[in-house]
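A sample follows:
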Amino acid sequence: MALICIVLNIINIDWGITDTVNGIIIVIVLGVLQGSVLEFPVQTIATLLIGGERRHNKRAPCDRLTVILNYNLLATGKDDILECIETMYMAYVGNLSPNVSAVLVSATNDEELKEYELQIRDTYRAILYDDLYREGLAFARGEYELVDPIHLHNVWAMYVDVDRNVFVTDYLEDICDRYAREFMVVHRVSRVLRKCGQYQDLMLLSEGEFEAYSYCDKCCYGRSARETGEALFHTSEDVSNIIERKFDYTLVLDADTGVPRGGVFDMLRIAAAHPERGIIQPSIKLHCGPGDTMFMHLEAMRQSIYEPMTNAITAMFEQSSYFGKALIKNKLYIDYVIGSKDDLIERVPVDVLSHDTFEAALLKPLYAGSTFLLEAPSHNYVTWNIRERRWNRGEILLAMYFWKYAFGKPMRWLQQKLQRSKFNKTKVRTESKLDFVTSYIAHSALRQMMMKPALLLYIVLHISVHLRYRYASIIIVMFSVLVFPKFATCNRENYKFVFLETIASILQFTPEALVGCVRIWRALYANISINAKWVPQRAVEEEFKSSNPFISSLKHLWGYSLFSMVLGVLVVIFLERAILVLVMLITTALLPFYTGFTSLPINFKCCKPRSISIRRLFRRGGKLDISAHINTVADPNMYSSIGNTSEPTLELSKIENNLLTPNMFTNYGFDERSELPNNTKTQNNASWSRDVESMIANSERYGQMLSLSAGRNSHSRRVDGREKHVSVINVKFPKLDDTNESNEYDVIHLSSSDGASSLSPTGTKSFSSRSSLSSKLPSLDITLAEQGSIWYENNVTYIKVGKRHKMKLWDTSSKT
């Protein structure tokens, strides 16, 4: 097909009035461009022929297979840590089993942040311990509807024959402690191989290796090599817990990758049916909620539209790419990618970014489209551009290894000239040979990357070439990329979304002829020099959230607009027949406005405090959207352990619209109008990370159980005829008066003068007297005891801290 296109391009040129050199150049450029885009119509035809439906993967029992959920992190701030560990916690709790463990492999350098990681780990361990303890009591009472279905099947069912009293006294605490300790954080000593090295060392640790033996050869890796025999991880209790466990599989995940409830077991069943496969690659679902930006919705929509083509191509080749987030069989990976002490392999280059290509070449990933992992799309075009630039840099590094003479040697020469004494000469120990299928899949991103400079060259050169059908070539290219693939995916249900995505793609990708080339140049320069400066995506996202998105877009993209407007004026004045150039320049000039518009939520309200959907499975911080005086201690939709459901499974679709606050288990906010001392006043829009940090700083002990007798009604301690309990992690505030002589609980200290409060249980009995509480609050309009300091509503336990001056603490006219 490419040869046919080249012949047609030759015929389309009017050679009588066209310069021969220009004609030959444009034929070559068009051949490269059309050859790159022809795969889209070919894939479309293949999808129409074999079908783009999701294939059902063969499954087998997986009861004996063990897996460790591996999150990898290099934290630059506390928000990174909070987001990652919360995501890991929800993945672990949603797939709790004796055969499942979870570990964060940290490459963080800052000692304060490393200590913070351990603090957050301990906080979530306490939450898990308390939550499981509450579930265990419900299980012992036979109240199975209060037990998470997954936990009931995987954890509690094995104790069904144990006497309930013996279970509570002899088993329950050990069970809770055991599962809490399987939620781990380990700190890696070296940063060799970046993320790939993190989970490689984790696999080796699991096999019993504590000291490094891979990537230690200075002849191959120069200054990038580590010392032979150095520890893989800093010594800790969690490291001791992992060593020699010999996990069968490692589920490699990024810091923001969500795992659906029960998804781990589904992947293990597929792996059990395909033991010869080293990688089980689930599909990646881009997901977003009602409060997310239009750009995120467009990205998720685009992925959904093109999913049938992915299903068809992976089914046809019986192989897929490795996306860097998948289930890896440890033994096969070590044998084929790392090697042993006596027979080193080390197929992944020490300086490569796109390590997944080399791993996929050996382990032939099986695409498991019937299961999936969750990931959030880029927040806006600017963060998308940053991510694409990072990926382009990885593709250039790959090209240096795959074409080491034609491309690698010139690049190494340039690196040596620019970096001088800082240049580090490296080589790969074992080269990977790619077959046709693996090569086609591995280089798909590189082919798409090279479309950008080819398109820009064509747009510039077509001005000097006389074509019989002037715009036929570019129309065919754009039609092949943007329109023709929709024939395999468009139907009556999604045609409106397909039309919307097509219009958005024209506005977003037409400027790519210019913007994409700038991105490639910056990625190329980053590889040649050592001055690679990347703006963190999180910082850009926070900037867009806290300011007007149109202003933020201009701040990042003004250069493209200014260049396009100036060049556009010059083109109009001095050039004829430059319609394609003007179209590219106009869309590029409008790029900041497109970025600003798509950075708005679908309700067009920017910077609005909002809650986060459970479907996102992780937090991004942000302002609060509920009363800052209400603390959610236990929410069944948060970690699904006290959900009131008798169904065997909890479907994601049934909870995806349940909005949650960014505060998972505590929120310490005061109304700025309250007359509080300076040492107790807190901003009402304090971020989630600051709230958790305050909670940790003020915590003394974990795991206390409070009976809910201090509700707003005399029967509030019993819901549906059952006594409810709340697990409290010593929620407390600074206080001036710290006296409590009549209660067994140091429950509430509150006065109208300071507004400070403390909830600090010292026993397990319920509140014995309402009057004792009321006597401590003489100046409040409505006493805390009357309104309830702790109550249970719709399977959510709330604790009230702080006060509003001259206002009710609990309003019965509205639901919180």
Notes: The CA atoms of residues 294 and 602 lie 6 Å apart. Residues 607-693, 698-789, 799-816 have pLDDT under 50 and may be disordered. The chain has three domains: 37-58+274-533+548-606, 64-256, 635-816. DSSP finds 29 helices and 16 strands in the chain.
